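Hi P.,

Sorry for the delay on this. The queue was packed all week, but I finally got your sequence through. Input first:
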Amino acid sequence: MEENKKRLLHHLKRQGYIRSQSVLEAMEAVKRELFVPEELREFTYTDTPLPIGHGQTISAPHMVAMMCELLQIERGDRILEVGGGCGYHAAVLSRLTGENGKVVSVEIVSQLVKVAISNLEKANIENVEMLQADGGLGHPGKGPYQRITVAAASPVIPKPLLDQLDEGGIMVIPVGKGGYQNLMVLKKRDKRIFEKDHGGVVFVPLKGKYGY
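Then the structure:
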């Protein structure tokens, strides 16, 4: 597994998905095999999304790396993750924000919340809180957040997430209708939102009030 991981991370660096030492070290530290269904373990370090049940997937490693780089996470950041799935992306985020930071991960499928909590325990991740909730509504009680990452596609940018984004904060979210979306980076400066499109992506649809 470790050799496969090294080859994958080398590939992601060569392709430009991993650009910083912090993202490289975070992805090195997390064992993706702990988050992949047992019957798919042989594909753990292939650069592809994998099904985790309930119509959801664990994102491809290149997409995890890309979103982490776009978030520009700083040590101690409070991060909201929408679409926690099996917990893998939250585990990488937890390494980036460090022991003084916090990751609040919301997932609408209650069965996946239980799976993610178990996976995070196996990985000895202690600064992630997994919650069952409608991701488009965020979790205002734990905010505001310096960083927000959304791992499911929404036809619109949910206003509650914008409201929970801290001043100076960054949000990464796939937005669009139909099978393809645009990966948007939003920055809040002086109470204004600045957007930048980082290209086409394909994500599973967001469920709930702001979903499909």
